[in-house]
Amino acid sequence: YRENILKTAKALVEDTKLLVSGAASSQDKLAQAAQSSANTITQLAEVVKLGAASLGSDDPETQVVLINAIKDVAKALSDLIGATKGAASKPADDPSMYQLKGAAKVMVTNVTSLLKTVKAVEDEATRGTRALEATIEYIKQELTVFQSSEVPEKTSSPEESIRMTKGITMATAKAVAAGNSCRQEDVIATANLSRKAVSDMLTACKQASYHPDVSEEVRERALRFGTECTLGYLELLEHVLLV
């Protein structure tokens, strides 16, 4: 399925270019670009799922790496379409145009990451390191969203935020063990676990910081510590990658 994935991903990059240029053109062209990209991402998701299934059920962690890679591309495309909608018919120096360029850059990064992952899947010696690289990139993107001024749609209790930090503790232990063993399967499992643990922590931290009972000062501290925790964890993953 590799060639089919590469071909479909290339088509998606072309759709991305049309989306970005569509912001400055007619509504019809923009609608066509959005529809085309939606169709292409559906095709890409299907062929990646087939590729993941072809690996066999005895390697579920690598299957998860592939599925995560296509999920990242789909999320980036959704954000790009939203940014395109916001930038449509706006002048070139409008802030929404800079958001559009940023979203396009993330989109291309995630497509590139998917292609690297697909190529690495066939090479057992690089599977783990590639999974780790993809996770580090994903966490950096999640941190950017966390640090944005966007208010979460819902709030949660401080207790929920505390509960989510336990996942970081577990993932840290797993990362240290993977750094010691250097086995590709341990590194892949660490990459998958780290991704979820940090994402859950950042979501819970931001939701808790916007709880109605939380003061401005406490919110700022919570958001700062959420950032510091993530940066510390990223440093840990960089060390595992180095090892």
TrEMBL record:
GO terms for cellular component: cytoplasm; focal adhesion; plasma membrane. It comes from the Eukaryota. Its main location: cytoplasm. It is found in: Cytoplasm. SUPFAM superfamilies: alpha-catenin/vinculin-like (SSF47220). One of its GO terms (biological process) is actin cytoskeleton organization. Pfam families: Talin_IBS2B. Residues 7-118, 128-240 form the Talin IBS2B domain. PANTHER family: TALIN (PTHR19981), TALIN-2 (PTHR19981:SF34). This is TLN2 protein. It comes from Leiothrix lutea.
